[in-house]
Amino acid sequence: MAGGKAKGSIVIKLVSMAGTGFFYVTRKNPKKQTKLMCMKHDPVVNTHVLFKRDKDVLSIISPT
């Protein structure tokens, strides 16, 4: 079924490095040990800035 939550993923918060306090929330695969940073649009400064992983918001654990 389309649009379902990914099992076993972690919901994380990406915070703008421009210091505006704007953030995105996204999901990440916990098996991959990578630092999550990406360029996204910050509407407060109206430009693309670097967003860095701040903290884990929610763990979605798959039932076994």
From TrEMBL:
One of its GO terms (molecular function) is structural constituent of ribosome. Pfam families: Ribosomal_L33. NCBIfam families: rpmG_bact (TIGR01023). Gene3D superfamilies: Ribosomal protein L33. The chain crosses the membrane at residues 6-25. One of its GO terms (cellular component) is cytoplasm. InterPro entries: Ribosomal_bL33, Ribosomal_bL33_sf, Ribosomal_zn-bd. GO terms for biological process: translation. Keywords: Membrane, Ribonucleoprotein, Ribosomal protein, Transmembrane, Transmembrane helix. It comes from Planoprotostelium fungivorum. Belongs to the bacterial ribosomal protein bL33 family. This is Ribosomal protein L33.
